[in-house]
Design goal:
Layout: H1 10-46, E1 48-53, H2 56-64, E2 68-71, H3 78-83, E3 90-93, H4 97-107, E4 112-115, H5 122-134, E5 138-141, H6 156-164, E6 168-180, E7 188-200, H7 212-238, E8 247-249
Parallel strand pairs: 1-7, 2-5, 2-6, 3-4, 3-5
Antiparallel strand pairs: 1-8, 6-7
Helix pairs in contact: 1-4, 5-6
Length: 253
């Protein structure tokens, strides 16, 4: 006996039930994450042994009271955000729902935020970031956020540091052993008692007059450099290559 096809009333009712179920699930997830997310972030940062490679130039810039901006891939932000907490760094965060979640979490970790992205509120946030950076603030950008493509360096970060005339500093980390989530950014979370290597690159200065093909060449070079630094930090964390001196523990940096 063949089953009767669903009526026109049954199909919308099923879709509505699924829609409401998804909304309830998303609301609960958002509620829990915004209240406990920073605690989970702190826990993940404390259950791994962090070694910092590089960063001498960051200390020199800070000693002089100058501004700069970190650039970190979306999927590699966990340890850099943990390590650089409570420094008053201003981060550009999207106005989308996932951006609201991130904003609430990082505020509790001592960050400030400028809200906007390439699709919503971007110009306002861009100008707020430039103004703060010119006044000596430290910034943080996710150049492949908020939705990817993964490891594609969008030009907005370079335009921002060019306008502010402050250095760009790449930062990433590798961990072993670690979980890699099935998200678009392949978000990496170190496992308990793991080793994490946070790699900080040399400052990049962008000439105010740079534009056109030369600007695009620089964008591509920075993108390739950040991808290489991910591979390098992963190899260091796995013990495949030695960690160069000087080395600073996460507690001392």
């Amino acid at each position: 006996m063949t089953k009767a096809a669903p009526t026109t009333e049954q199909v919308p009712m099923t879709k509505n039930r699924l829609s409401w179920s998804r909304r309830i699930h998303d609301s609960i997830t958002f509620f829990v994450a915004t209240r406990l997310g920073h605690l989970l972030w702190l826990l993940a940062g404390r259950w791994t042994k962090i070694t910092v490679v590089g960063g001498e130039q960051v200390r020199k810039i800070r000693e002089k009271g100058g501004g700069f901006t970190y650039a970190v891939w979306h999927g590699r932000m966990l340890i850099p955000v943990y390590h650089e907490r409570h420094r008053g760094i201003i981060a550009m965060v999207s106005e989308h729902r996932d951006g609201e979640l991130v904003a609430r979490v990082v505020h509790k970790l001592g960050y400030r935020t400028a809200r906007g992205s390439s699709t919503r509120g971007g110009r306002r946030a861009f100008m707020e970031m430039v103004r703060n950076l010119r006044n000596g603030s430290e910034g943080a950008m996710l150049p492949d956020g908020p939705k990817g493509p993964r490891h594609v360096f969008k030009p907005g970060t370079l335009l921002m540091v060019q306008r502010a005339q402050i250095p760009l500093i790449t930062i990433t980390y590798g961990a072993y052993p670690a979980w890699t989530l099935r998200s678009w950014d392949r978000f990496v979370v170190p496992k308990p008692f793991s080793r994490s290597v946070m790699l900080i690159g040399e400052p990049i200065h962008i000439d105010r007059a740079l534009k056109g093909n030369e600007f695009e060449m620089l964008r591509k070079q920075v993108e390739e450099r950040m991808i290489r630094e991910v591979e390098l930090s992963d190899a260091m964390a796995r013990g495949e290559i030695p960690i160069p001196e000087p080395v600073v523990s996460g507690d001392e940096a």
